[in-house]
Amino acid sequence: MRIKRISKHVWSISTWLIVPINVWLVKDEKGLILVDAGIPMMANGILKYIDQLNFGPLSRILLTHGHSDHVGAIKKIRSKRNVPVYAHQEVIPFIEGKFPYPRRKKAQVLIEPSITTPLDEDAQQQLKPIGDLIPHHTPGHSPGHVVYYHQKVNILIGGDLFTSRRQRIRKPMSMFTANMAQAIKSGQIVKKLKPKSLCVCHGNEVQDPHKQYDLLREKLLS
Asked: How far apart are CA 142 and CA 120, in angstroms?
């Protein structure tokens, strides 16, 4: 595992298991937020890096969605640091094993029931900011998929909104994507927000992803 500073307030923690797997630490007024929790073997490394950064305690865990490579270290992390876990309300029944994920035959309990709290919404059903992170609902790869925008540093933490390779955005992994057309349409968020840098779980950061989006959409949806 390795840690990389993305900006003054954001770090990625990475490992490799067939493909790259990234999670993120974000500094805020309460300490550090963990966005996604990778696979089980990442737990000790994540906790080590939190201590090394010395910016305060782990305050909460935010999920982009609930696939196993995004929640795997939660159980062990929470055994050491009893912090709340947040995700979009639409994905929680799948995380808790009440329903199988789309295109999967069996439901699986990935996080024990009652642990995951829905992200707050305002009166217009827009997701409320958490610290400096603004969540945006981007379904398609998974029900309730969410990306987190750090407006101060103009970075978008995208989870599985896309994958990336050689500084190019690519479609999310087909075999794990519930609705590819919807996922690509949700990718329009990069044109709305125009982040300077996009961070994805499977791949490296991509600069100015909004400049690439139309070509990808035309290729995949035409």
From this structure: 19
